From TrEMBL:
Residues 358-494 form the GGDEF domain. InterPro entries: Diguanylate_Cyclase (IPR050469), GGDEF_dom (IPR000160), His-kinase-like_sensor (IPR054327), Nucleotide_cyclase (IPR029787), Rev_trsase/Diguanyl_cyclase (IPR043128). GO terms for molecular function: diguanylate cyclase activity. The lineage of its organism: Bacteria, Pseudomonadati, Pseudomonadota, Gammaproteobacteria, Enterobacterales. Pfam families: dCache_1_like (PF22588), GGDEF (PF00990). It comes from Duffyella gerundensis. Gene3D superfamilies: 3.30.70.270, PAS domain. Pathway: Purine metabolism; 3',5'-cyclic di-GMP biosynthesis. This is diguanylate cyclase. It catalyses: 2 GTP = 3',3'-c-di-GMP + 2 diphosphate. Keywords: Membrane, Transmembrane, Transmembrane helix. PROSITE patterns: GGDEF (PS50887). One of its GO terms (cellular component) is plasma membrane. The keyword Protease does not apply.
């Protein structure tokens, strides 16, 4: 029953969650299409705006000879430029400059200004580029009325192809503001027109604050425009930190990009408000399922609790028994087998050897001058020394059947089933060498090397032996090693001499 309730609950959550996820993904896709279409609309408006200016400048360029050769007819030229400007509401003014940047004609009434525009970026650009390509610059302040404008210019050449001057049309930034204001957008949504070099020309709602601000570090210029001239993407704005869904479109034939951004968080909040009823209904359904399940489970709870209590009691008893067994067979200081486990295992190995005829051996080890070590360094250091020796011995018991035990205070024993005398001696030699190599300091030893050493006795089972005789032989060999000067091995085999 609990599994059934769990499966039903998970099913409700997965089905509801999946439907909501699909709804959210559909909402994102619809808004991606929306911003992409809006950016295309802005792109088309920008294209029409600058195309009209381009046609006007080209007309001025065709009449450049008359303008430059008839300075006395300025009033007629001014009237022509004024009429052309009046036809294009996006224009702030039309101008013609000579090669030095001095005004030759413009669309404004009154006398020509005396200042030079030769310092403007667009003028310098045409000096450097000897072609008839139209140039769209960054936003500047008009020197005639201080209005922010986008300069659109065309190089003028004489009959020999030499630089004669510049025809200029200034497009009002406010013209784009008026058009962008037709769009209903959210509080943090944006509409913008940027130069192809990533410079902002106009962005609603930021307007003047971000004019000529570079957007080169955004994904739009870092990646998207390199892949496709139109598209969409989502990224966090470096300007205000808001994550938006952007649509973008390059303006055909002009170095401009139109972009539209929708605040993704605001979109999600609106989507949540729309789907709140569905979410609440799903939660209510889930709560009813859980309530029904709880009512059913209540009937089973007492029985399950009683059963669990019995199982806990059984487990605790089993654990306690295992713990007692471990405590009965393990030496608490060193973690080795204790004397009881040693006695049991030794009897088992001797019975097996007597039955099968396979030899077995016993190694007894004693730490040399350990009482002096304790007296000199204290019992805490003595215990640490015993644990260190135990670790060394455990590392040398590499076979599954080998058992290392703490036999007495500073005595240790190796029970080695299926091991003859020569193999036991070889292991004893490794033990002696390993303890020496550990170089544990022992200042009160009588040996020349002031380190902890072992005396070792080795005995091997023979037919007719028992546990007592095997231990007795190993113990006698151990004491012989001590009498002979310690730090050595003695075996009961008459064919093997003491080893240092």
């Amino acid at each position: 029953m609990p599994l059934f309730l769990l499966l039903v609950s998970i099913s409700v959550v997965l089905i509801s969650g999946g439907a909501l996820w699909q709804s959210w993904q559909h909402e994102l896709q619809e808004n991606e299409r929306l911003v992409k279409n809006q950016s295309l609309a802005l792109s088309r408006q920008a294209q029409d705006t600058f195309l009209q200016v381009q046609i006007t400048l080209q007309e001025i360029a065709r009449n450049a000879d008359d303008i430059f050769s008839s300075p006395g007819h300025y009033a007629g030229t001014q009237g022509l430029l004024a009429r052309q400007k009046a036809l294009l509401p996006q224009l702030n003014g039309l101008f013609v400059f000579d090669a030095n940047g001095i005004s030759v004609a413009n669309s404004a009434p009154g006398p020509l200004p005396a200042y030079s525009n030769g310092d403007r970026d667009y003028f310098s650009w045409h000096r450097r580029h000897d072609n008839q390509q139209m140039h769209i610059g960054h936003v500047i302040r008009s020197r005639s009325n201080n209005e922010p404008v986008i300069p659109v210019s065309l190089r003028l050449d004489d009959a020999e192809g030499h630089f004669r001057g510049v025809a200029l049309g200034t497009v009002r930034v406010d013209y784009f503001r008026q058009y962008y204001d037709y769009f209903e957008i959210g509080e943090h949504d944006v509409l913008g027109l940027t130069h192809r070099d990533a410079t902002m020309l106009y962005v609603r709602p930021f307007a003047d604050r971000l004019t000529n601000h570079s957007m080169a570090h955004t994904p739009l210029y870092q990646k998207l425009l390199k892949v496709s001239p139109t598209g969409s993407g989502t990224w966090r704005s470096p300007i205000d930190g808001i994550t938006r869904i952007f649509g973008y479109a390059m303006v055909p034939h002009y170095p401009l990009v139109a972009a539209v951004g929708i605040d993704r968080d605001a979109l999600r909040k609106a989507w949540l408000r729309t789907n709140l009823g569905i979410i609440c209904l799903n939660l209510l359904m889930l709560m009813l399922v859980m309530l029904f399940g709880l009512l059913l489970l209540r009937q089973l709870r007492l029985m399950l609790e009683n059963q669990a209590e019995l199982l806990r009691a059984r487990d605790e008893l089993t654990y306690a028994n295992h713990r007692l067994q471990d405590l009965a067979l393990i030496d608490s200081l060193t973690g080795l087998a204790n004397r009881r486990q040693f006695d049991i295992y030794l009897e088992q190995c001797i019975e097996r050897a007597a039955t099968t005829g396979v030899p077995m051996s016993l190694i007894m080890c004693d730490i040399d001058y350990f009482k002096r070590y304790n007296d000199t360094r204290g019992h805490v250091a003595g215990d640490a020394c015993l644990r260190r020796i135990a670790d060394i011995l455990k590392s040398l018991a590499q076979r599954n059947g080998d058992v290392v035990a703490r036999y007495g205070g500073e005595e240790f024993a190796f029970v080695l089933p299926a091991t003859d005398a020569s193999a036991a001696l070889a292991l004893a030699q490794r033990i002696l060498a390993a303890v020496r190599a550990a170089a544990l300091p022992h200042a009160s030893t009588e040996l020349a090397e002031k380190i902890v050493t072992l005396s070792i006795g080795v005995s091997t089972f023979s037919i007719g032996s028992n546990a007592d005789s095997l231990v007795h032989d190993a113990d006698q060999a151990l004491y012989a090693a001590k009498r002979n000067g310690r730090n050595q091995i003695v075996t009961r085999s008459p064919t093997v001499a003491a080893q240092r």
